[in-house]
Amino acid sequence: MARLLAVLLSVAWIAGSALAETRWYRLDLGGVPAGWRKVDESMAGGLRTWKTTEFMRINRGGVPVEIEASMVWVDKVDGTPVEMRLMQKMGAQPVEATWRFLGDDIEIKTTQGGRSNTVQVPAPSEPWLTPQSARAFVAARGNAGADTISFRTMSPEYGPQALTQSMVRAGKATVHWQGRDLPATRWTVSTEGIPFKGDVLFSSDWRPLGSTMKLPFGDLRDTLAGPEVQVMDEGVSPELFTSLFVKPTNELHDAHHLDRLVLRLSSKDGSAIDLDSSGSQSIAGRSPHSVTIVVDPSTPLPPIEGEASDPAYREASSLVDAADTSVIALTKQAVIDAAPGAMHHAEAMRAFVNRWIRRKGLATAFASASETAVDRSGDCSEHAVLLAAMLRVDNIPSRVATGLVWMDGADAFGWHMWTQALIDGAWVDLDATLPMTYSTGHVLVATSPLSDGWGQSDLVGLLGLLGNVHIDVVEAKR
Questions:
Q1: pLDDT, tens digit, for every residue of 260-269?
Q2: Tell me, which fold does domain 245-477 have in CATH?
Q3: What is the C-alpha separation between 169 and 346, in angstroms, rounded?
Q4: CB-CB contact of 77 with 133 (8 Å)
Q5: Residue 451: predicted pLDDT
Q6: pLDDT attached to residue 19
Q7: What pLDDT, on the 0 to 100 scale, is given for residue 36?
């Protein structure tokens, strides 16, 4: 959840974020103060620099979690991109990424805890705009009387690919600011890949005065403010764990000890639900607004074309840092008494991670495998990422899986992360938070190798389901 909120913060209102001076915004989620955003723009030596700094505090089951992020774009006056720098801190150690634009390629260097990894990927072939150029483009089109504006841009959380952002004029508004009424124009904004629309308010000189992203679990709103927004009430933060539990519409008991579970998922707002067959989950039926899944851990499914040879499931990354000496040492320790064979090794590592993480709680937003190896604390995401890294150390392809898991005490499904390993030609599900290898009490929504450079666009499919799903139990077989 914390990482997905970071995606939303970095993608939202790209065109409206670049400013000609420093401005501050208060962030609210579901009507509750959640943090702040500061945006600056400057020019020197023929280069334009745009920087945004963000802080957000949420509650996960009553435990406060803080997310810090900053993003810096540097381009030439003609809009040619030069560099992008991103910092995110969701664990003890921040992750920093630097993109250098080299014509047809982008060099991406990711650094965490003194370790770095560099990859070079193709730049988008289609034209796209930096945030600075996007602001100028929107202003020119808006001043020309356009009622619809579309352009291609880029957000690092989506990786090195161009996204389409579309804006539709929605009318006039007034913003109250420091005792004055500022006239504004309201635009409805949508961004490719984000399943939500929202509104942004522009002043007459195309400075953003505020925005709202309409999420199923509460509006994410930023409002023009001052530097005082950095002082936050320690006792007030939006709750984003228990509030997103999903209770089935009919009874379900002991979902972790079934042989086979059939569920029908439908969206509350009537939108399509796009789930896939993978690991223990297969699709039994689809309709425009629902999908029926079968969960059977005894029959894991093979990879789709290209997955078995994909190096992303074998390589170390800043989060799945399989090259770290502490992760390598734990892997050797975990399998020292294991029977030969990938499945025996995988289960030995899964059980080892369950024992190794002693402080199990929700205080960490999203730590790397090496952090968890040393700190020995975390929730489901730390279990999943550490296990994924250890599997790669042992030459077993791995990835993380995100979705829902049955919560016995709550009689509901909660959002969760676990691990998949490619063993004997099938994706095998492994949940290091459980006393058993895996169970039927899971709903798979998305998977990701957590590769450097490509962001987390493969996990953004979750966003459309948060607070927006019904679950019907079709069959619970023992």
A1: 999 999 998 8
A2: C8orf32 fold (3.10.620)
A3: 54
A4: no
A5: 85
A6: 42
A7: 94
